[in-house]
Amino acid sequence: MRLRDGTLGQQALFAALVAVSLLGVAIAVVDKFDRLGTANVGWLLDGPYASPTNEDASEAGLRGGGLVLSINGLPLPPHLRTGHTTGPGARTELGSTNTLVFRSVHGGVRELVLPVRPWQWGDFAFTMGASDVIGVFFLAVGVVTFVLRPYELASWALLSLSTFVSATLLTVFVPTDSGGHAAYFLFCVGVVIYLPFHTALAFPVPHRWLLERRGVLWAIYIAGMAQGGANLIAWHRQYVGPFAYTRAVGSAVLLASISALIARSAGLALRASDPLVAQRARILLGGALLGIVPFAVVQFTRELIGVIEIDNRFLMWPLAFFVLALARITLRPALLNARIAVRRAVLYTAAVAVLSVVALFLVNMRPYLVAVLLFPLLYYWPRFDARLNRVLYPQRARFPELLRGVSDELATAPSVEAVLDALASAPARLCDATSAVAFLLPRATGGGEVRRRVGLPPDDRQHGLDSELLIQILCATRREIRREQLTVEPQFTHIREECRAGFDRLGADLLLPLVHAQRVIGGLAIGPRASGDPYEADELDALANVAQQAGQALMRVEATEQLRRRELEFADLKRFFPPQIIDQVMARGGAAELGNQRKLVTVLFADLRGFTAFSDSVEPEEVIATLGEYHAAVGARIAEAGGTLEHFAGDGLMVFFNDPVDQPDHIERAARLALAMRDDVTRLRGIWTRQGYMIHIGVGIHTGYATCGFIGYEGRRDYAVIGNVTNLAARLSDAAAPGEILISARSYGALERGFLAEPLGDLTFKGFHQPQPVFRLIGPTAGGRLSATAG
Length: 791
What we know:
By secondary structure, this protein is an alpha+beta fold. The protein is built from 26 helices and 23 strands. The protein starts with 7 loop residues before the first helix and ends with a strand.
């Protein structure tokens, strides 16, 4: 998810949190410019505790600060306004002096005479350098982490903590004499006291309360804002009345919230069964112990017991350990292979140091030699960089070559299995992965799933991937899934063990989707690296690109196979159907859509009269030539009529209409075809008679219901109609005299007006118990349908 993908409310909350810290930056910058050149008495008071504000006061004996007893002979009041001030009785005229009596952190009561001089930029660095640097560091870490991992529970917690802590640190040394600065600072302090509770719920792994009891977060932030309001009221009232102990209460709450964070981290570090959770808990525990525990302990003992007087600036630098620990466990997927980056930085530093020494040596000898050094440096430095890459990243240096090799294999793979083989071998070649599984889901293959495994034992196929919960999540999100996400991301809380079992079955640490047309068709499950290092961002991008290329290759293979199947199918259909019928069949989905079905069809049978005697009296070559002439003539007529040729049988043929596509005029088509065939044979008889061949055609037509569909076996199929309609059409053809077209009463009764026929009465046919009324089709007529009486 990217930062701009958040909802309007999420983006507004992000902007508000960043604005809180940026306001602190603005207050700190304005304060420095306002105070530049004004009186600097040498110290600042936070309650009764003084901290030096310049190097002079520190060297004079105020180093580390102390508990102030009196200023210019005036004792401090029992309740001093919180915030930073010079205290009552302090002289602020430039050139004057102040006498400060205090109990030093080093022991004993001391008296100092400090001159008043103008504020300088060095004084700001001395006084506020630690708080400003750590404050900006907190802000940068919080914002960068959130941008890299936006809108996650841990990112929200870190951003909230970072912005409020940053705002507090940036304004901690800004005088609170003005109400605006005081309100801002005291409000941020109040919220910061409670923020460790939120951090404890979000780290090292999100607590279930963050999902199930969102009211807990409301309670934390409402309490923090109430604490900020109490701080402000106490400041206005000089700590008199019920608000006198506001700072003490705040310190106690801070200690309690930090204790909760440490307790949860320690518990998970010791008892977590997941090694990743334990590792994250140990990192956070170390950061808390090094970073915030010293500050919290000092603050608590100072406010409640008053036995430690120490300058808070000494406690700010360790806070960086804490925020670094939070960033480390939040950004673990983004901060990969840091050790290699460190090695590279060390080697670069060493190379630059050597070059610097050489340059200094040459400058002492001849200055112009430094310029001469630049020429070989410009030549050899790129080679040095390339060699360093080959040493530190042996495979990354060959990435272009390896990627081209994988891409070529995917582009030339002739089958789905070959594509998956190339895809499964890619992680080992690119990233030293110990194993990989490339698979296609049944929904993509239209049958069973297809898997290819590298570096793993043979798959027993006992678990179907299509029903695997992990794969279902992959299909829903269409995004990569890492094993470590199961531990740290709350959406896996209730399904963690089942998803982890899915990773175990695949032997994987990373799962990438194969996506086509916004649909997951398969995946690539990648095992751990042989070196044990995590996968780097560049490697993940390369693997994602390979997976995308594999998806395209699979579609290419599928399209090629589909085209080949359609070509074979077209060639198969061409044996039965005319081109216009084939086009309609292919548009409906091809032969796969031609299932067996019962339909009303019109069947035409035709054979040659006298052909048997002709074939017995001439050479076979003449028989073949004559049949060729006959078939060429009637074949063209069949195509023109849109009939389906079931078969040739020597001099006989069978054609039917109204299947596989609907033809409302199927009887008329059959009649016109029969007449056209008779005319063609009549034309051919003029040639055959001169050659001594006494051949003519007989045709039979009948309409009825039949079952239509493919018959045969793989490699030898026919498209046929099965039923009595074919039997009667065949009997009519057998009964037809030379040049005669016989049509059944059912066909003739449904024939449109425009054909001339004469009844032949009822004829008895073999295989039929009842005589069948028959008509002789004579030809078309310009008027209505006419019937001529025989004789």
